[in-house]
Amino acid sequence: MSAAKLEKKIWNLEQRLREEFRVELSRALALCAAKVQHLETEVLLLKGEKPSSSPARDGVAVDVSKDGIARLPGNALGEADVVPVARMAWPESTEAQQEGFVAKDECVDWVPLEPVAFLESTWNLVLVLGFTDAGWLDIIISCLLLVASAGLQIAFSLILLSPDFLGEPFSTHITSAERWRAGVAHDYRHMDLAETSLVSRVCNKDESLIVSWKCLIDHWQKGKHFVLPFDVTARDGQATLLDQIDAFLGIIQPLDMSLGILLCMLCILLWCLYLCNEFQAIGLSLEAILQVPRRAYTSFDHGRFETMSYWRFASYCLARLTRGVIAGFLLYAGILWLGNTTSITDLMLNAVALGAVLDVDEMFFAALMPKKIQIKIQDLEAIKINYTRRRSQLEAFLLLLIMSGLMLWPWFYLVEPLGNHMLEVKRTLCGGQQDFVVGINSNQFLTVGRETVQYTSNRNASLIELAVRDLAFGDSGSSRYILMPEETSAFDSKLTEPMSAAAASILACDDFDLYYLEGQAPPANYAPYWWNTAPGLGFSEQSTCAEMKLRYQELATVLDTLNCTDAPADSPAWQLFWDQYPISISSAMGVTNQTQKDGLRAFAEAMKSAGCASLAGPDEYEELTQIRFCDGHATLWSPLSVLCPKTCCNDADSTYCPSSCACVDKDEDRYTANKGQQM
User: Fold this and answer.
1) How far is residue 436 from each of residues 157, 238, 458, 529, measured CA to CA in Å?
2) Cα separation of 529 and 510, whole Å?
3) Closest CA to 198 of 233, 229, 231, 173
4) CB under 8 Å to 591, separation ≥6 — which residues?
5) Does this UniProt record's set of keywords contain Transmembrane helix (predicted)?
6) Angle, CA of 435, 441 and 445, to the nearest 5°
């Protein structure tokens, strides 16, 4: 229970006890006074004196005169002429007693009084200065605390009202969203490995999203050669902004109302209640101090003001008005701050923080105020003010009007426009078509676009994602899906290398059954091609042979329908094979003689110029191994019948010949014809 409420209850109890005691005392003394008056009359008559002619009074005054003698009703005015007949004694029955006395306690008027207590605050220092019996150091410290608490609250008010603290209106995000959507959102450079556009990932809240404005700023600051679409240093990431909008506009069932809007209005209501209580306290304290008579000097005794000087009265009124102005600034700034808060997790924290700012003077008083002055302020006696029924109703009506106005203004001016702006920003960020990207052809000044894959949270991992996960989180430290060149300089060439060049560069044709059926470890140059085949065709890691059978039949059909024509001499695959031939064969056969190496290079140059026709003549066999070029070597080169089917497929034993070459039976299984030949 607060000090004000306790003081009020004690005061009311004291007033009721006083009134009840007065009524009961009057009732008890009335009977005694009547009996005494009757006895006095009897005595006077017996003495022959004339009794008083004043009528008997219903009540009795219990006041005491200055000489300390209680004055009873009735008095002797002179001697009686005759002795009257004696009357009966005063009846002792209860009924007779009640006939001459009627209780008046039901008619006692009760006027409620409201005690206004002086709270424990630095603002009440002006009331007790000069009556604290404190030292000069305590007085200086207390005055400094008063100035510091007032200055701190004023500083908070100015900071809350500053544009830097309140920030830009949320409506500015609409322009930023338009620039983002027209710039980075559909930039082909920000597609992920699954070929999904950035805007689709942002709007679908992709948890693996790593392309954010912070990343762009970091790259830009490190000197990357691209131009930021707009000033992203003043913007949060669009993904974070979209999360805040979705959380703020979330619907609460069954109220069918936005969570953020409801919470925002409740926090503003809480803040308005804080300030209305403060304004009411300021008004009551000013009204209470007006009850104290003003004189040239202040009379102060045991916490009670008998009189107050004009200077002290003006100082206290000025302090309370200053407190009211500060509270008004805090009310306005707090409503603006809460109305512009877009994070629902920050709304309650901001409301509580504002309440702490309002209680700064009480904190200063409790923590730093000298004890002598603290005790004197705590001893201030509450001043009672009259609180009639009419005033109570009028005050309640005015408070209702004020609270209604304080709630309607932020709703129409802040909260509802904020919700509309959020909807507009979300519509700009994620509305319309999302699954496409564009780029600029700088040579033709032409915008080129393509469709992207629609985002799905349970989509299969792309080929690159699969390879990265296998290497990043695999136990072996290597990846089955990634081809790692021995030289880092070969990375760029491998990115653009055609399949024909890769086939010519891999000289060994091994039997894959040894690796994938009999469990032998495949060589590093073969494994990536094998493991990338199924994911590259769109199959998942768990795909079976039955699911991929259709694709095998399609590839076999393509192989069978190849034309029986030789590759031209200037084809990249033919040129690449003979460029690598001297080095490969020298290393494999251990050729160290320079003359022999020069002869191999001259032979390769001649074959590059002669083309496939040279394989039908004296150069049909390789000089060092004495194996036909068309048949291929098990570990050094693939059969050249792939490049020269017309020349090489005149023999039924030649392998890798398309069915269009008449020398080979169309139904023959070319892949198992020579069981000893390794594929």
Assistant:
1) 49, 18, 20, 30
2) 13
3) 229
4) 585, 597, 600, 624
5) yes
6) 115
Where does residue 544 rank: exposed (0-12), middle (13-18), buried (19+ CB within 10 A)?
A: exposed
Place of tokens 């003001």: 305
Name the pairing type of β-strands 257-258 and 251-252.
Answer: antiparallel
Q: Tell me the per-residue pLDDT of 306-365, one tens digit each, with 9 for 90 and over.
A: 889 999 999 999 999 999 999 998 899 889 888 888 888 888 888 888 888 888 888 888
pTM (2 d.p.): 0.56
Residue 98 CB partners (closer than 8 Å, separation 6+) = none
Phi and psi for 32 in degrees, rounded to 5? Answer: -65, -40
Q: Where are the domains of the chain?
A: 3-110, 463-545, 562-679
Q: Is 590 left (phi over 0), alpha (psi -120 to 50) or beta?
A: left
What's the pLDDT tens digit per position in 157-177? 888 888 877 777 888 888 888
Distance CA 55, CA 259 (A): 79
Distance CA 29, CA 23 (A): 10
Pick left, alpha or beta for residue 611 (phi over 0 → left; psi -120 to 50 → alpha; otherwise beta). left
Residue 501: what are its φ and ψ, rounded to 5°?
-70, -40
DSSP element (H, E) containing 373: helix 371-378
Residues shown for the chain: 679
